[in-house]
Amino acid sequence: MILVADSGSTKCDWLIADGNDRIPTKTMGFNPFFHAQSLIEAEIARNDVLMQHKDNIDAVYYYGAGCSSPERNTILERALATHFRNATDWVVAQDLNGAAHSTCAPGEKGISCILGTGSNSCYYDGEKVIEELHALGYILGDEGSGSYYGKQMLSAFLYKRMPAELAEDFEHTYGATRENIFYHIYNQPNVNVYLASFMKFVSRHKEHPYFQKMVYEGMAHFADVHITCFENYKEVPVHFVGSVAYHFQDILSRVAQNMGFTVGKVIQKPIMPLAEHHLSLLVK
User: Fold this and answer.
1) Would 205 be classed as within a structural domain?
2) Structurally, how many domains does the chain consist of?
């Protein structure tokens, strides 16, 4: 059996695969920037599906946010090894690699982008992933992501620059006050996840001109930074994974048309094609 994981900062999708069997499950998302090895071990141990099959796992392929250096990857490797002790084949790599493997066929060139809680992009030359720009995280970067829009929404609400009908619904939906917003932003962990949680509100009002403009400008900003940095961005398909890209495909298509690139695959959850990628390699 193989175990494949695709983890953002909000949630982690897992898939146990063997022959024709596909067993999905979920945990909270892990990011070694914010989460200690002990927390990751404990959260995995709480998942009954993973614990039921842990001794039958021969290989673990984990792709996650924040797994961009050997030091941070070691946090995940040690946490995983605590439970899946019989695994002999290991991959712990950043989520960009997972995005590329789930959207680009072997030998196919393309740009793969993440637009979820956070954002990033890479170029896949048919064999390996090339990251032109390193992600700056939710404070300095994450353009076009859920956390990016969350900051804009909260600022607009608190500055009273959000349209009145939206502000009234926002306040009613979340019981939003300056005090509780500041408490979550400045006194609680996982601020990026808190910010991204407001995308549900955007999605509910996605036809409103205010959010149409906000999402379009954010995606155009993302494309300007993370897609046009690749010289041949107009010549290869540009793929996307993540909930923001998936739920706002219509706006993404307009951005692509106006900026001259071609949208390829748009996948909300890449876990299944990622697992099929690894299974195909085992057959070879």
Assistant:
1) no
2) 1
